[in-house]
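Batch manifest line 856
LIGAND: protoporphyrin IX containing FE
JOB: complex structure
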Amino acid sequence: MTPAELDSFSLLLVYSAMAVYTLAFVAYAVDVARRSAAKPVPAEVRELVGSGAPARAAEPDASVLAPAAGGRGARIGFTLTVLAWALHVGGAVLRGLSAGRVPWSNMYEFALTGIAVIVGVFVLSRLWKDLNFLGVFFTGLATVFLGVATVNYYVAPTPLPPALQSYWLVIHVFVATLATGFLGLGTGLSVLQLIKEKRDNGFLRSLPSPVQLEDLAYRVGVIGFIFWTFTLIAGAIWAEHAWGRYWGWDTKEVWTFVIWVVYAGYIHARATRGWRGSRSAWLQIIGFAAIIFNFTIVNQFFAGLHAYSGL
Amino acid sequence: MSRSSSSDPLRPGDHIDAPEPAPRSGSGPQLGVVGWLRFLWRQLTSMRTAIVLLLLLAVGAIPGSLVPQRSSDPNGVIQVRADNPDLVWLYDALSLHDVYASPWFSAIYVLLFTSLVGCVIPRLAHHWKAMRARPPRTPARLSRLVGFQTVSGDASDLDRADRLLRRLGYRTHRYGDSISAERGYLRETGNLLFHIALLAMILVVGLGSGFGYNGQRLIVEGRSFANTLSSYDTFDSGQWFDEASLAPFSVQLDELDVVYETENPNAIGAPLDFTAHVTVNEDGVSREAQIKVNEPLNVDGADLYLVSNGYAPRISVRDAEGTVVYDEYTPFLAQDDLMTSLGVMKLPGGLEEQLGLRGFFYPTAAELDTGALASAYPDLANPVLSLQAFTGDLGLDAGVPRSVYALETDEMTQIAGGDSGTEALMLAPGQTVEIPGGLGTITFEDVQRYGVIDVHVDHTQTAVFWIAMTILVSLLGSLLIPRRRMWVKAADGRLELAGLARGEDPTLERAVDDLAKRLGGETAERSGRPATPRATSDRESRIDP
Ligand code: HEM
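JOB STATUS: finished
ARTIFACT:
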C-alpha cells in the first residue's frame, strides 16, 4: 500500500473507533440511567471516625466496588470500549506506518495517540481495579476529543522536520501522553469524588465512597506526576540538544512547569490538614485542565519554539 | 496522631500525620518578639504556606507565556512595545518582559525556598536520629490494627519471625514476647533528598549560569569566524564571565547541505535535513566536523548549534566608469517556509549618491496570477533577485545605530520599483542591470547559503543533569516506598500479627497476609471485623469540610 492509502485506511479505522466509542458511551449511559432508576443498593459505607482506634478505619470491603462494576450495560460498554480502542490503536499504528515514523509529531497525531493512551490506561486499569463507573467519562472524552482531532487538527502525513528528528521525540512525547493518561484517570476519579460528596443518590450510590475515590485518584495521580516529572526532565535534555539550552522559558516549557507545580501543590494538599478532601481534588482537576489547555490553546495560539502543531 | 513516635518523620504542624495542635487557651496568646518570630517562622514553614506559594508560583509563571520575554523572544518584545505604546509603562512597571527575573517572581520562589529550607532542616536532623531509633513498643492490643490475624506458633517462633522480617527489609526490636518491626525509612530519605535536590537545582542554575556565555554568528559558506567577542553578531554572558575564558578556536563553514522533500505530495519542499560541514581549527590543528539540528558539535568545551540558515546573494556594484565599488554577500532573511527572503544593502560611498537597495530573493521564482513573484520551492531551481533602489540620505552618519536588515527610506527617493515609475530591478545569477539615473550597474554574481551558529558554554549542564536524576529517583522512592510497622506477638499459644501504615500505603493488608503465609503456620480465622487497609493512616486527623 502507498503511504496515502495507508493513511486513508488509518482514518477509516479512526472513524470506526469513534463510532464504536459512541456506542460504548451510550451503553454506559443507559447503564447509569438504569441504575439511577433502580432501588438503591444499600451501600455499607460506614466509617469509624474518631473512635480512638489508632490509625485505621474500617471500610466497606471490596464488595462495595462490585456494584460499581455495574450490570449488563456496563459490561457491554466495556466490551465496546475495548473494541473501539483496538480500532483506534490500529488507526494510530497505520498512521505511523504511513508516515514512516512514530505517530506523534503534529497536533492530529498527538491527539490521536494521546487519546489512545488515555483510553488504554482506563482499559488496562481493569487489571488492577474495576473502574467501569468511569466508563461514561472516558468514552465521552474519547468521542469528543477524537472528533475535535479529526475535524480540526487533521493534516496529511508529512516527514519529520529536522528539529524533531531525535529519539527524544519517541521518549519525551510518549511519556507525556502516558502521564496525561494517568492524570486523566485521576481527574475522572476526583470529579466523581466531588460529585459524590455533594449528593449521593441514584447511580452515585453504587460508587465507592468519596474517601475511596480520593485515595484511588491520588494513587493514579502520583503515577501521572512521576511520568510528568520525567517528561519535564527529558524535555530539558532534548532542548539542550536541539536549542543549546535546557531551559529557556519557552511558552511550552512554561506550561509544563506550571502543570508540574500545580500537581506538586496537589500532592502537598493531600498531606495537609484542611486541604485533603475536596480542595485537593480541585487541584488535581485544575492541573488536568491546564494539561488540556497546554495541548490545545498553547499549541495552537501561543508563539514559541515548539511550533509543531502542523496546522 | 496518638501513636506518633520518635521514629516517625517530623512533619510541619499542619501535616495530616502530625499531632493535632493543642487547643489554644481562651485569651489570645501573649507573644514577645521571640514568640512572634517563632510564630511567623512556623507559619512560613507550614504545609499550608507551601501549597499557597506553589500555587502562586504556578500562577506567576503564566504571564511569561502570554507576553513576549526578552530572554526567549526579543523580537516579540519590540513588536509588542511598538504596537502598544500606551502600555509600555505597565510592562516595565511589572517587569512583564522579564517575568522570570522580576522582583515579584523572585520573591515567590525565594519565599518558597526559604520555607523549604525551614521545613527540611529540622526534618533532616530528626530523620537522622530516627534512622537509629528502635521501632516503637508493641501496642497492647493488636486486634484493632490493620490486617490483624493469628497463626499457629508460639514464642519459640519469634526468632524465625525476626529473621524473616529483617530479610523483608524491616528494622526489628524484641519487646518481651513480641517483635516490633518498621520499614520504609527510605521514603523519608527520598522525600528529604528530593527537596534538597530542588534547592540544589535552583542554586546551581542561578550561580552556575553566571559563568557561561552564548554567542551567535551568521556565516556564509566558505567563510570562517574566530571565537572572540568582536566576531559575534550577538553575545550574552553571565555576570562573572571573563573574556579571557573564550577558547581560542575558529570555525569555517565549508558547506551547508539542505535536503528538501521532493516526493510526498503533501510536503513538497518541507525540509528533511540541515547539515553544516565545518572545519574546526583548535590550537593550530584542523579537523572536519559537522553540525546538525539535534546534533551539536563540541569544540573545546563550547557547544556549537546550527540554529537557522538562509541565502546570501553576492551583489557587486560598479560606478558609471565601471569601477567596482561594492562586492559582498548579503544575508537575506527567510520570510516563509519556501524561503522567500528579504534583504537590504547600503552603499554610503563610491557612487555619486548614496544608494540603498532592498528586495526579495526567490530561490525558485514563480509568477502568481497577480503577476507578482513568489517562491515556489525552497531550493535553488530558478533563483531571482528583485530589488528596489533608493537614493538620498541613508542616515548612517547620524550616529544612531541602524539595523543592517532595515532601510530607512524617509530621507530617500525611490528610483526603481514601487511607485517610482521604474520597474524593480530583476536579476538572475550572472545578470547585470543599469541603475536608473546612470549611477552605474548592479550585478548578481552568485548565491551561497549561510548558517547561523550558536556557540554556547554552560558549566551547569552536567551538574543540572545529575541533580535532575536525583530528583527523579528520590521522587520515586518518596512516593512509592511504603512506610509501615508490623508486629508479631506471641499470645495465648498463637502468634498475632498486625500492621500499621505510616502515610500512603495501599498494600499494607496484603503485606500482613504475606507475612502470615511466610510464617507458615496454619492461619486462624481473621478477626471478625473487616479490616481493609486505608490508603492512609490518618483517619482521626482528617478534617471533613
Ligand atoms: C519548591 C517547592 C516544592 C516542591 C516542588 C515540592 C514538591 C513536593 C513533592 C513532589 C512531594 C511529593 C513527593 C515526596 O514526598 O517527595 C512533596 C512532599 C512533601 N513536601 Fe514538598 N515541595 C516543595 C516545597 C515544600 C515545602 C516548602 C515544604 C514545607 C512545608 C514541603 C514539605 C513537604 C512534605 C512534608 C512532603 C511529604 C508529603 C507527604 O507526606 O506525602 N515541601 N513535595
